[in-house]
Amino acid sequence: EHAKAAFNLGNDYGMAGDIPAARHLYDTLADLAQRHPGEPELRLRQAQAAFNLVSDYGTAGDIPAARHLYDTLADLAQRHTGEPELRLEHAEAAFNLVTLCGKAGDIPAARHFYDTLADLAQRHPGESELRLEHAKAAFNLLNDYRTAGDIPAARHLYDTLAALAHRHPGEEQLLEPVVRGLRLLFRLYREAGDDEAGRSLFASALEIPSLKDALAAMLRSAEEPGEADDNDGS
Q: Which end of the chain is less enclosed by CB atoms within 10 A, N or C?
């Protein structure tokens, strides 16, 4: 009950913008979890609070503090590999940092967190939630590369997204970031005057069975690839 109350109050403080108070309650939770290592539910509360606080620091523009707390969360998850709930909190925090660093214009940092997340998802192929975080992060980083005009890097991430959808056809939640990535890359080719590359991209997407229906629906709704407003990340 103490842990639950500290978590809820810390979340309330974070949402209200009182980060010092939220941090104090996080530290209380972390200390409680460390003093009771045989109670995994306390570790999960600590991880959830860390995730929330990473987001709070990011919203406040304090990326260094967000990264430092992320490292603590990553270490916690890595020390307790038998607790997949911690791994998901780690993945979600990595996704947040991909987004935060990308919006701050620090693409190398965003790439670092993306690579960490991709590796995490690949090492745990039975956990579809990690794969979804990987796909969402790939789309956001693709968008960052598009903004920077780096077509090869954007294309590489789109190919990663398409491969994920192809290998996991039963996971429909992967289709949205793939189709959004297709639109962005198609637009990038068109802006560069490379219509042939755009047509080739679209044709290759149609070869992926799980994408076929999603693309057909997009065409039926009269949305040519690249016309949707996908300037923002997930």
A: N
